[in-house]
Amino acid sequence: MPLSGIEIFKLLPKKNCGECGVPTCLAFAMNLAQGKAELDACPYISEEAREKLSEVAAPPIREVVIGSDGRVVKVGGETVLFRHEKTFVNPPGIAMLISDAMDDSEIDARIDKLNKMVYDRAGFILRPEMAALRCDSGNPNRFGDVVGRVANSSDCSIMLISYDPSIQAAALEICKGKRPLIYAATEENIDEMIELAKEYTCPLAIKGNGLIGVAKLTSMAMQSGLKDLLIDTGARSLKEAFTHHIMARRAALVGKVKELGFPTIVMACEMSDDLLMQTFIGAIFIAKYGGIIVLSDFQGHSLYPLLLARMNIYTDPRRPLAVEEGIYEIGKPNEESPVLLTCNFSLTYFLVSTEIENSRVPSWLLVKDTEGLSVMTAWAGGKLTADVIAPFVRKCGIESKVKHRKLIIPGYLAPESGALEEELGGEWEILVGPREAANIPAYLRTIWQAA
What is the largest CA-CA distance in the chain? Predict the structure, then answer.
């Protein structure tokens, strides 16, 4: 039985300090009981109370970790139906299928993709995390060989796909140090798969016939002591899979159905033979509750959009992406190099810095902390005005790095140019740069050189 708000309140320190975000401990207890607060929000709770409340404070979707080092995949841990309510927590893992029926050259090529498909986007490193290794040969030796090659050649997390417990046991012995995901326990093999998961301390995927079938199997696994579970309802049509994901999330979060409170697996590779269709399916389930998405292959034109969508959806909407305030050297600037100013919104910073690099004019870039807001938004909010910029220019240390006193500001800040010169005591000449980052190279090569 879940604890009531009053029962939780009795275990709290009753300081009514408000540091948890609500004014009283009773309000905090009520939020905990409804799954609207996290236990860590209270800084004064005792270890004894924490232990007693850990179950009630656990997220409705259990957090499961796959892998032990390298590209560890953490899925689940979700507390809301919609991102704007709070935030989504753990992005889904993206896996590439590798079958032991493939020839060795194809397997090596796929391992190479897993290792080399890495993208830098606005300072974030985007890459896939998982290899889904499927036993199609029925030969435990062949499957073990493939598992060993992947385990020894890549730091990716591993998903072992076989319904035969003996084949799973042989593969687990080879890669047990990597804490792979065992896929999958069904009605026919549930007891053996549970024992394997307990013996090797690995997460277990449950595959059932629909939500009711899954709930029956997860109940059996939970009664045996297993908690690290993922679920696959067996749906292989887009409509049915989408419906199951929505229903499972609502059942766990709203209905408090613990048997469905686990991350899900989307076997996109079994839902279509067309990679672009699989990409479309993957995009849908990145937005709607997929825990792991398995594709038949990785191609740059299909993988990158998925990684980018995942990054955008799984960033906290309450905290804009930002870089640190300071002076950034682009190229090898000297005391005669131009000095430019921008905000610390990460996308703006990387667009501006990239265009400065493209100009091949070594420059100093001053990045002012605007709490992650863009130039226009920060200016409108009073975070990038003359009286804010001037103290930053004085204190950041740029005056000791250049002989000249010329500062290039974004074109959108043109109304601040006169006031900024006054704030800087007339010592600096303010140059109004282009509004769009794409025009920076031409500006630096022409107007700056002429100035």
Answer: 82
